[in-house]
Amino acid sequence: MSYDHSTKAGNRGVVWKHYILLTVLDDLVSQAEPDSFSYLDTHAGSGLYRLDDCCSWQEGIGRIDSQVRGEHPYFTIASSYLDRGYYPGSWRLVHHYLKQHHIAANIRLFDTSGKVASAVGKDSTLDPEIDYRPTDGFKAIGTGINPDLVLIDPPYRPGYTADRQRTREAADKLNDRRVAYCAWYPLQGDSEPLEVPGRTGFEIHWRNKQTAAKNQMYGSGVVVDMRSKGILLSRLGELEKIAALLDSEVFFRNR
């Protein structure tokens, strides 16, 4: 499945995804204080995107003033890249965080895009902590490996329904194995959102969503495992503040 993450780098949905991902990661590390940490990204992308190549970041990370970002690890790491004209992808944020905390990382990346293979292949050659495979990340989850944290982040295009179903199935497998995960999904037109039985989706809805035409996004969400749900609920005030800065509101999706 090939998808160019750079077109959406730093937009509202991505900021929401990354804020939740780094919140979960930070709590896992703070509680366990591990010497090593394994992370799996099902649809990794190249991991580094030029802001000049995309304007959607202005409606996302561009809305959050540097004075407001505070000490949350997502913002502190992202800011170090923004200052150089780049936005970091999910796996690069995670890898940067682990290196900052002197934790040995095992970063498992999957993506079938030729562009990603070219970009990430160089990183994996230079850094033994990065293990890139040009294969389908959904299949990797099915092999039974148990990382410390998984991001399920398929493109949802052009096969929205198929990706939604495969994401649900992947989340079910991780639930059975009690693996921490974040599963991102778009809220788009009249399409049915992702729902995982017994799990909660933390969503933001754009405040101007009534103007969205059919098939346009009006928000996004992240389904998480039960432990991560507790982490996020304990920080609901922070989530609401971030949503407001993104001109959005927080909603919960339960099934």
From TrEMBL:
Pfam families: RsmJ (PF04378). One of its GO terms (biological process) is rRNA base methylation. InterPro entries: RlmJ, SAM-dependent_MTases_sf. GO terms for molecular function: 23S rRNA (adenine(2030)-N(6))-methyltransferase activity. GO terms for cellular component: cytosol. SUPFAM superfamilies: S-adenosyl-L-methionine-dependent methyltransferases. Gene3D superfamilies: Vaccinia Virus protein VP39. This is 23S rRNA (Adenine(2030)-N(6))-methyltransferase RlmJ. It comes from Solemya velesiana gill symbiont.
